[in-house]
Design brief:
With 198 residues, the protein is mainly alpha-helical. It folds into three domains: 83 residues, formyl-coa transferase, domain 3 (2-Layer Sandwich); 31 residues, no CATH class; 29 residues, no CATH class. It contains nine helices and five strands; from the N terminus they run H-H-E-E-H-H-H-H-E-H-E-E-H-H. A three-stranded antiparallel beta sheet has the order 1-2-3, covered by helices on one side. Strands 4-5 form a two-stranded antiparallel ribbon. The longest helix is centred in the first third of the chain and has 12 residues. 10% of the residues are buried.
């Protein structure tokens, strides 16, 4: 798991350490700026990611600052990267002026990538997750109806999913002891001595 997370993160953060000898430190500044996080809106939080020139022009127009599209600090990708703290600071300041719903509508109409920041409880009402059945329920033999998570990927030959419930203590004792060659009498004796549960 550790190796997977390092691979996932360092794919972007390797940066100047790609070269040997390195030409500078590791770290992708667009991700390391303190403003790169879900933004506080007037009533919640929102994830927004203008990325290319068109996104930024649309975003600047939406916040009433179309002049920023011509600002030499923000006009092109290379300049934005060098001034990323100031740029994301403008985004953070702007997000506080409207509600999450207002931003989602405006940014959606402007075709700027965005999405709400969900709480764990919000996810149960997410339309996409409901449509794919992400949180199915099933009858448990002793606990009643329980909810679990759907396996999020599909494999044609080895589909994942809930195959059976976790067994209660001693649930497999009989078949395992039979497989090991114990007789019914021997198993009964072990159970009586409380060496095993059946």
């Amino acid at each position: 798991m550790y190796e997977c997370m390092v691979s996932f993160l360092m794919n972007e953060h390797l940066q100047e350490r790609t070269f040997e000898p390195s030409s500078g430190p590791a770290g992708y500044q667009r991700l390391l700026t303190p403003h790169r996080r879900p933004y506080a809106t007037a009533d919640g939080y929102l994830c927004v990611m203008p990325y290319n020139n068109r996104h930024w022009q649309s975003f600047f127009a939406l916040i009433g600052r179309p002049d920023l599209a011509a600002d030499e600090r923000f006009a092109q990708q290379s300049a934005r990267s060098k001034n990323i703290d100031a740029l994301y600071g403008i985004v953070a300041e702007s997000m506080r002026t409207r509600t999450t719903a207002e931003w989602l509508q405006g940014l959606g109409e402007a075709d700027v990538p965005c999405g709400p920041m969900n709480t764990p409880e919000d996810l149960f009402n997410d339309p996409h997750l409901q449509a794919v059945g992400m949180f199915p329920t099933i009858a448990h033999p002793t606990e009643g109806t329980i909810r679990h998570l759907k396996v999020p990927v599909k494999f044609s030959k080895t589909p994942g999913g809930l195959q059976h419930h976790a067994e209660r203590l001693g649930g497999s004792s009989m078949p395992v002891l039979h497989e090991l060659g114990y007789s019914e009498a021997q198993i009964a004796a072990l159970a009586q001595q409380r060496v095993t549960l059946t």
